Amino acid sequence: MIASPHFLGFPDRLAEGRIPRAVIFGAGHGSTYPGKDSSGYALAADAIRIASQEDAALVEHWDFDLGGPLFDGKPVCCIDASDIPTAMHDNAGNRARIEAKTREILALPAVPILLGGDDSVPIPFIGGFIDHGPVWILQIDAHIDWRDELYGERYGYSSPMRRASEMQHVAGIVQVGMRGVGSARHTEIEAAQHYGSRFVTAREVHAQGIEAALRHIPEGARVVVTLDCDGLDPSIMPGVAARTPGGLTYTQVIDLIAGLGKRARIAGFDLVELYPPADIDGLSALTAARLLANVIGTIVRQV
Fold first, then answer.
1. Residue among 46, 161, 12 nearest 115 (CA)
2. Structural domains in the chain?
3. What is the pLDDT along the chain (303 residues), one digit of tens a residue?
4. I need a labelling partner for 263 at 20 to 30 A (CA). Which of 32, 60, 139, 152 fits?
5. To 10 degrees, the CA torsion angle through 107, 45, 242, 29?
6. φ/ψ of residue 136, rounded to 5
7. Integer Cα distance of 132 and 241 in angstroms
8. By the 8 A CB rule, do 256 and 156 touch?
9. What is the reported pTM?
């Protein structure tokens, strides 16, 4: 089996004595629901890596999204640690391995960047920050993901924000991009509002700009960003399981990431729910790769 190339051709380690600013790793499976198949999501990390290869030789070129080269004229300071081993339906084992890898990266110290996987992988990813709090959560998603359990599973893709709200090191949650109909019933909306989660719908972002979301993030806060690909409009991100019209644009998302880097500090980032079997001509993987480049460029520019 041929190994997948690393994201943008990044190394898997830096020269001895150099500590990376950010570390990418993949996790194909998290907590899969009984009777469900999450194998399609496990293809996502490699699809993003492959989509990035066209730009691998251009890392030192000018990036108009960032206003300069990816690493701002400095040496490469991000590595791709490949994927950690996961197995479908080994839910407890997958969570333990994702959390352990997150802790390992934070101990370097570096910013962990996780490529999922479905929307269950953020639960152990956020859990890995237990000794690095307080952190805020900025979720970009079409749905609020506040179910307490589904099919008897409390750690599945419908529950990441509910589980995050129970973590003592999570100081607050801002949820951006909601629209249409999802799994949330009135009871989930009430639970999220009772916790104090800030909802910013996609329509609010379209009408008011990214400030509609950024104003809820305290200045100087450490923020973990969790990006569900269905938070973007399916016209540019068709490779998702729950296509919902009216999502955020590519420019809105990269402006939100850049604005967050100036207002606060990105402490971690995950990208989930890319479903390559539903992609069209690789468009979603390419969009995801460009989003990831913007995240890395923003992290590099953080003081």
1. 46
2. 7-301 (3.40.800.10)
3. 567 899 999 999 999 889 999 999 999 999 999 999 999 999 999 999 999 999 999 999 999 999 999 999 999 999 999 999 999 999 999 999 999 999 999 999 999 999 999 999 999 999 999 999 999 999 999 999 999 999 999 999 999 999 999 999 999 999 999 999 987 899 999 999 999 999 999 999 999 999 999 999 999 999 999 999 999 999 999 999 999 999 999 999 999 999 999 999 999 999 999 999 999 999 999 999 999 999 999 999 997
4. 60
5. -60
6. -95, 155
7. 33
8. no
9. 0.97
Buried b or exposed e, range 215-248, using 16+ CB within 10 angstroms: ebbeeebbbbbbbbbbbbbbebbbbbbbbbeebb
In the numeric block, the tokens 């955020």 are attached to 248
In 3D, which of 247, 251, 257, 254 has the Cα closest to residue 138?
257
